[in-house]
Specification:
The chain contains 3 helices and no strands. The protein is mainly alpha-helical and 94 residues long.
Length: 94
């Protein structure tokens, strides 16, 4: 039987994982930026554009009801959205 706290426990774990994955991407990006040159400039521009795009996509999903109707569903889908983006960056930078 699923307890009322099971969804929130999963959300907590997913949040922690997002933090760990994001820390990895931050380290990879800092390394690239510290190297300087055209690659660093492109990465900085890409980073800002990706953040704006990810936020926009999430706002559209929220406005159109695609995040769900419960706080648990909304939190879970938001985390899934950002974790997908972070994992793609980790793969690309790694």
């Amino acid at each position: 039987m699923r307890t009322p706290y099971a969804d929130w426990m999963k959300i907590g774990l997913d949040s922690w994982m997002l933090g760990m994955e994001a820390s990895t991407v931050i380290g990879l990006r800092l390394t690239k930026l510290a190297a300087g040159g055209p690659g660093a400039t492109a990465e900085a521009q890409r980073m800002v554009a990706e953040k704006m795009q990810a936020a926009w996509e999430l706002q559209v999903a929220a406005a159109t009801g695609r995040l769900g109707s419960t706080p648990e569903a909304q939190a879970s889908k938001t985390l899934r959205h950002y974790r997908r983006k972070v994992r793609a960056n980790a793969k690309r930078l790694g």
